[in-house]
Design a protein that fits this description.
Length: 319
């Protein structure tokens, strides 16, 4: 019995798996480049759904007596002439989220909140204001710049770390992959119209860290196999390394995915954006290690990681 328990009872991928991933290297890189370009275009038009953190304005969460009549509440709020007022149901049928544009200084914000509170109470007696958040244009701009700087610094830090730990080919492959992963995540936010705010920035930074961790495992195995199989072609070394780490990569990703899934399903609107971004990033990071990072190492390291292999075609052509 103890002998049986000493071995894994379940393997996601058989130990003798030998999938020739590098046969699809060119297709993987081309598809990734296309998706990243499309993501950048979507981020520009129709654009990201910026949250109050980055756009500025006022957010009010209210709860009505019984099911909310959105049309009646919208009509009451719009009649106040406070700009473009947006209302949406927020989880429960009696919960409503109201968005107002920036109202100038703090005094203007307080007047706007008081006016909306009175108008909604008149339109739907018993309405309670649960929370109010207000961010000015200057603060929202500073938060947006801070978020972008944090993202840029994280990418730079990961590049430096991998560059010092591995050969430069691995560092270049990792940072290109991280940029592609980040743009695709932004494209996901643009398509789903999940709010782009500080929470989603935190999710992207978490994805970057997880993605680097997954790639470091593959890089370590590649380096070991390059030393172990000195005569094996680089393409075969890359395929062998991916297959040998496939169980670990999929297992780790599945564990993180299952831990984030309840947040997406039951965490409510406050955590949904973070959780769904995380879920998308987990799947993206795992697949990019195979179909983007590995092919980049294969092509950038063809001459330096296997110099004899690269020199052989040139010698054959000369003769």
């Amino acid at each position: 019995m103890f002998r049986a328990l000493s071995r894994p009872l379940f393997r996601i991928v058989p130990d003798d798996t030998r999938i020739p991933f590098m046969k699809g290297a060119v297709a993987g890189l081309m598809l990734s480049a296309f998706l990243s370009i499309a993501s950048v275009v979507l981020a520009i038009y129709p654009g990201l759904a910026r949250g109050i953190d980055f756009q500025g304005g006022i957010v009010m969460e209210i709860r009505t007596e019984g099911q909310a009549d959105l049309a009646r509440l919208r009509s009451a709020a719009s009649a106040l002439d406070l700009g473009d007022v947006g209302l949406q149901q927020f989880g429960a049928p009696d919960a409503v989220l109201i968005r107002l544009p920036v109202q100038g200084d703090e005094a203007g914000t307080q007047r706007a909140v008081a006016a909306v509170r009175a108008a909604l109470e008149e339109a739907s007696p018993g309405t309670r204001v649960l929370r109010v958040e207000a961010v000015g244009e200057r603060v929202s701009g500073e938060l947006f710049r801070g978020g972008m700087i944090a993202l840029g610094i994280s990418l730079l830090a990961m590049l430096i770390y991998i560059w010092f730990r591995f050969e430069w080919q691995f560092g270049i492959a990792a940072i290109i992959t991280l940029i592609l992963d980040t743009t695709k995540t932004v494209g996901f936010l643009a398509v789903t119209q999940i709010e782009f705010n500080l929470q989603t920035i935190a999710a992207i930074l978490t994805i970057v860290g997880f993605s680097v961790n997954d790639k470091v495992v593959v890089f370590d195995r590649m380096r070991e196999n390059l030393r172990k199989f000195k005569q094996m072609p680089l393409r075969d070394v890359v395929d062998l390394s991916i297959n040998e780490t496939l169980n670990r990569s999929i297992g780790t990703s599945a564990t993180l995915f299952l831990s984030a899934l309840p947040l997406a399903l039951f965490g409510g609107d406050a955590l949904a954006g973070f959780a769904w971004t995380m879920l998308f990033g987990i799947v993206l990071s795992t697949s990019s290690s195979i179909f983007i990072t590995a092919p980049l190492v294969l092509y950038t390291g063809a001459k330096s990681l296997r110099p004899k292999e690269a020199a052989a075609p040139a010698q054959a052509a000369a003769t």
